[in-house]
User: Fold these one by one.
Assistant:
Number 1:
Amino acid sequence: MNINDTDVTGEAEPRVLLVHYLRENLGMTGTHWGCDTTNCGACVVLMDGEPVKSCTVLAAMADGHSIRTVEGLETNGRLDPVQQGFMAEHGLQCGFCTPGMMLTARALLDKNPAPDDGEIREAISGQICRCTGYTTIVRSIQWAAEHPEPDGFGVESGYDGEFANDVDIRDIPETAANVTAAGDGADGVTSEEDTKP
Amino acid sequence: MTLTPEREANHAADSPDRPIGFGRIQRKEDPRFVRGRGNYVDDIVLPGMLHGAILRSPLAHARLVSIDTSEALAHPKVVAVITGKDLEALNLAWAPTLSADVQAVLATDKVRFQGQEVAFVVAEDRYAARDALELIEVEYEALPPVIDARRALDPDAAVIRDELPGRTDNHIFDWEAGDAAETDAVFARADVVVDQEIIYPRVHPAPMETCGAVADFEPVEGKLTLYETSQAPHAHRTLFAMVAGIPEHKIRVVSPDIGGGFGNKVGIYPGYILAVVGSIVTGRPVKWVEDRSENLMSTSFARDYIMQGQIAATADGRILGLRTNVLADHGAFNATAQPTKYPAGFFHIFTGSYDLEAAHCTVTGVYTNKAPGGVAYACSFRVTEAVYLVERLVDMLAQRLDMDPAELRLKNFIQPEQFPYKNKTGWEYDSGNYEPALRKALDMVGYDELRAEQAEKRARGELMGIGISFFTETVGAGPRKHMDIVGLGMADGAELRIHPTGKAVVRISVQSQGQGHETTFAQIVAEELGIPPEDIDVVHGDTDQTPFGLGTYGSRSTPVSGGAVALVSRKIRDKARLIAAAMLETRPEDLEWEKGRWFVKGDPSAAKTMAEIAMGAHGTITLPDGVDGNLDAEVTYDPPNLTFPFGAYICVVDIDPGTARVKVRRFVAVDDCGTRINPMIIEGQLHGGLADGVGMALMEIIEFDDEGNCLGGSLMDYLIPTAMEVPTWESGHTVTPSPHHPIGAKGVGESATVGSPPAIVNAVVDALAPFNVAHMDMPCTPARVWAAMQGRATPPI
């Protein structure tokens, strides 16, 4: 099969699930395994561009197909917009559902570059997140739709004289609210002076 | 597409002038997670590692007649098969629980719940280990199971724990709080009393990652390294030392990245112990990772409180008192996680946000043939149950008095000037300003317009409901004098080192499972010292690298460990002052602090930054007497009290009159957790908890049939909300700092899980007013709502 643009040849027992083949035979542990009844979607990968639950695909069934995993979302040191979106909009917490969610989002945006809230929710409805309550995941995918090019993020892996990491994302709309050291704007009832015990 | 205010604010998180300290900044954890480069337990591979799998009981209650492992041992890939008899020889067949009971690691005499651990296979690979389970022959002799907690104390009920000397019944404990006589007197003179049985059904935290471990016992050094899905790695290390007899300095527990905990990963499960035994027996690392069905059937459940609740009031809506008798179903072993002196956790916070004259509760715990647990799923030690009880009763009282539920609450709130407020069961609430929070929620949701819309719709036969919940949480256990887990006081340590170049590492005793500790704890240090958060590494989870503490649960990280980190930062600041004074050749008292630097009063240009001071400390300047040549400090923080965050939640539901399907149309949540370290992360915490609320109120339940078969043992049956079942959350906040906390911050992680279920159920019951429904128990599934509409008892499922 072809995984993340690399041809892979290997042997697997007929019963071995794709999720285990990826994780254990290939050491690609970004794909997760969260249930045993194909409900949770933590194992979603793209097979020929379509999201599939790799716990419900035999490794042998992937023979001759092209598979994309979370490890293949970043290309040439550039993060995919969905990866940027999930960071920008706090679309992840424990991170366990994130790879599957992002791959489904990628497939959705490839077909429908400007999905609405309902279309996004339906697209990810085969996947469970226990941390976020989904609102920020929807926002993350909207963010990726609004920023189709990995533009202006300068995300490099490694050391370039000045340590660069993605905490340095800069995408500031002109209307951005002022952030004060005491919190997040003026909609609290108590003034920030009162926040000092 | 327009940006919502929250989204705009998130973008501001990464402006060039983003805050050095509190405020929205993006998470330091995310870069590895979005690349699939997290490091979770099942990602760990060690040389020579074997795989373990557990054979589980198909029966709820049965005598164990015999186990034949010969065929499994003959399997070419099987290295070892461990049974209860093998563990008995090592004195490991039973392990202590967090509630001073014991639980079977592997069954020896009987099995006591379906899914209980019976044998452990260690094999060369994951698949072979599962194959070998099928080759083990077990003979059982079925016994009558005890399933209904109400029948557990019947004289003819089978005795589940007959291995305990002298035990002749299924009674675990009786506990009470408040004043019974005073409460009876108040009820005697009340105009109105509402009396209702309110059940909080058994549910499960179901984190996306199940529980698992990799045990690596190195026989030459005698050192055990245990990678675990543990929310409390230090407490686990101590317990393993006590249980397994391995000296504590020879045990290293590592919690790597954890795929959600929600209280599921606090206790020690047999699988962890079996992985350790497997590694000792085989001399090789052993990995054990449970599947989802095992997780749902055998690890810590939550809730399962049958509460008979009563509320007393005057005719004009002054609430006088509350009382309740609770029957608590703890399953076959009492493994409930809570401070030792609190067998019912903090349930006695059930007086809620109201100024009462009297209150009293009793809680009786019983054994049944079910999995152990009870305290989990963001309950803050039974505060979920307490808040659900009081907020349902207040709504029922409003219905009885024909009063608006918001008005009734406003009328009875504890007033801001009453704080610190001593409630009638022994808590001292630290601070609160309840009315503005509720008013804000009412404004955000457009309460009056909604009531008008509801009246119109009701006239047309449409079912729309509006539900309010106003809750007070109690989080941040806790003061050592009162609170310990298995004898370990609930204080937390923090260590902070400033490297010569001014970069820092802070080591904490709590353990993130997605709550963003690596970001927010850096922000606390940043706020105190002016070092940018990206220059501060947060180390957690490795007991060899971090100070002792009790771990993350009960929303205790910010209250306890956050306090420790603020105080250790201040220790550094004080030391930095002495060093800066030496560098500037002035007296420490002549210096003034400005975030990030000490400067000479009246001469701001004469200053030393933290980085300069760090280099000075490690350099060659002459240091004052008694000052070590470093810029490091450590603190163990013993909190004086818990923190009491609060919130006002309003839920709007629509019910399809033809199918009885409940749809949550809107949900407004106004929370107050005092000082806000990172509003973006707080919002995410709350969103997740609100989704839990939708799950529990409408979908989730772990039920059993009469034989004790678990009917919620997979995600096919245990329904968790997807993006389709939840609305876009609307959040607001107020800020009422905790007066006793070093930075005024309160916990918040569990608030939404605690506060949202009553808001949703109150909305459902409100929608069903035309059918004269006074109460219905969760989950409000279509079948159960339909039954309620027909005036029938709820169906069994």
Number 2:
Amino acid sequence: MPKRRRESEFGLSTLEKVQQTLRRRVCRIEIPPKEIIEENLKEQRQHLVDLISRCAIRGEGNSALVTGPHGSGKTMLVSSVLSEIEANPRVSKNLLIVRLNGLLQTDDKIAIEEITRQLRLDNVVGDKVFGSFAENLAFLLEALKSGSDSAQSILFVLEEFDLFAYHKNQTLLYNLFDICQSAQTPIAVVGITRRLDVVELLEKRVKSRFSHRHIHVFNSLTFPAYKEACQRMLTLPSAVGDAKFVKRWNQSIETLCSNSTVHDVLKKAHQLDKSICGLQSLLLLPICRVSDDHPEIQPVDLLESSKHLAADSKAAMLHGISVLQLSLVIGMKHLTELNDGDPFNFEMVYNEYLKFVQRKAHVVQCFEKPVVLKAFEHLVALEIVKAVDGHGSRTQKEYRAMSLLVTPAQLMDVLNTHPGCPSELKHWASNPLPS
Amino acid sequence: MEGTTASEMEDPLSILCRQKQIALLRSLMGEPSHPTYPSVFIYGHAATGKTLVVSTLLKTLALPHAFVNCIECQTTRQLLDRILDRVANHEPSPENNYCSLNRCENMNTFVRLLKKTTEDRGIQNQTVYIVLDKAERLRNMDGNILPAFLNLSQLSGCNVCVLLLSQIVWEKFLFGFGSNHVEPFIIHFPDYTKGELLEIIATDCPEGYSVEFYSSYVNLLMSIFYMVCRDLNEIRHLAQLNFPKYVEPITKGEASEKDSHKLWRNIEPHLKKALQTVYLREVTSEQWEKFQRAETGQPGQQTSQPGILSARAQMELPFYSKYLLIAAYLASYNPARYDRRFFSKNHGKVKKSAVNRKKETSHQLLGPRAFPLDRLMAIFYSIVDSRVAPTANIFSQISSLVTLQLLAQVGHEDQLDTPKYKCTVSLEFIRSIARTVGFDVIRYLYDFVK
């Protein structure tokens, strides 16, 4: 195994460390330093810091929503703020943080258990039975008060906030916002969501208790900034060790980023997706490829990675089907065009296939109906063809209404690259048989 | 995949024709302590080595992993329990009463327990791999399961990587509710080319024959099957099954290994028959082998085909049930307005409207249409010669035809008043039924008469 070999060679530990550092960045584990976030999201960040510290120090109840599209750095912003808050002793000694996620706490019962756990009140609650959710929550907050004379502030961070809005009666949200509003324990609620219309999901009573403070985070990177972000993500800090190596590496990154191929690749990526997430997945492969035999990132690596990401998966799957299945797909394409997109069934496809085979009997072998049916069912299993009325219908499989989920353009692409595809089949695909 | 167990192949590099994918996966995994991408989605056709590559890699590198097949897990709890057991290296056995270590009902508990389990085993620094085979089944589970798995490393704070294996492309995994998911890293396992298939199948060459001889045989076999089937498992299975037949002239001394033409002439009709029977599983492999042995005993006698399942078109039914079924078939495939012409004694003149006729597609293509009970009974009475009283018996036969799935009830099941039915049998079947009662169905079918 290469792993053993590497151990003995020179420069191993440095490369290891390089991987460790860079992988942490692209695999979304590390939060970028404060300065980088401040550069783009200064206002938003300040807003959040103010809001939370006011809650912690002055005991103001407050609520806010951080919204923005996928990969725009909402979670990153909040975690960066949280790490700053925790570092500030004046704020952190008076603030408890409860983090909830809509994907994990799928109903209010689980959520309240999780809140109890995160506030470390399991032993206080014990086996008590509560009449209502509000009572339970009030008890939890009361229990926090009893420890000291003044009430502790609590910060609730609700990730995937829109999923909490699907809970029954939105009890959790109602109670949290209600406590925010009324002068009980000072709590701050920060929701993180991708949906811009999330407020419309809230019930009227919940909506009226929400402070309507929105913090928008958008992907507004211009191309030069995007390119710079790319370079920054690849540049090593001096702490990695072996100053000579780090210097050489950073120089190589600089030349890499000024390369024209890289420029084109990044430009294309930027046009498709401005988010940092897209950049991270673009850089993942080149970073993973770095090894002893390949100690520097080359422009080709980036090019390959962008090709990998852009691959059309449906065409790739079509590439692997047999000639018989391919001729069925062509038949289906013609049927769909003939009937203006109406669904078809197996019998029609088989009829179409027979018509073709009888004309060009020497090209494609004529297979029996059960063999063709098996091929057809395989296409259904691959979800290249889909039943229109779901699986519950009680008609025979031969007569079930189906629709094709492949575009003609995809099909033509595949026909040109398919290994061993007879040219008659290609001809048939572009010219339907006269009926 | 099933043909070669992982124990046979110790080194992942010995897996044929998958070097590129293995290298890609290895570089993604990195060293055990490296952080990894939260989720990797691997797709490709059946038998392209997805499971084999992933499981061999994980086993040979001795990485902590949990390999779970999603088909085996009906509920969320089964799935989550099993993953935790595998991560903790716990195997349900008679000693522990087949219990799993934890009782994990939802994702929230799972994330907590996963962290605890890795800490208990002392592997919190290593990447834990969770492999979910047949991941398309996850779409049918609770909506939060798949998005949560995709971002498990962030949700749990553990160093964990989720590998999803599927035959279905990633686009079909995008869910209806919200878009609260993280895109996985996507890897495609391409299908094997013809040459690669040959190379792989040549590895299980039986003893006593040269590899070239066996691969030339597989080549012949593929010339018949490759158009229909590109599945490695299937071709490999057929190759093993039909090999005794292929070498039969050699064992008998009629030909030598060099006589490829003679061998080909001997095997070709045999393989064509296999395409229609074994490939469709109408004959089990065991029956097929028995049939081959019997045939070698008496050469030239091909009539002794084994009891083929394609005797689909044979079914014993009571007399009136047969007529009911025929009537249902006629009602399903004939337009109602032609009933007069077919079943009434003195029907009016048949008007020929050439314009209309051209546009109609045959009902044999469109499939059966629903008809009300009254129409079924009317046709039934007109085709049965004797007088039949509409007894409870007759009606109960209709409903038992429905339970036999020869008829299907359309619409609401609780409708007692004028229920509608559809006939769900093939033309072949109805013709063989009609033959037993001496009734000519074709003469009454609009598609064939017009």
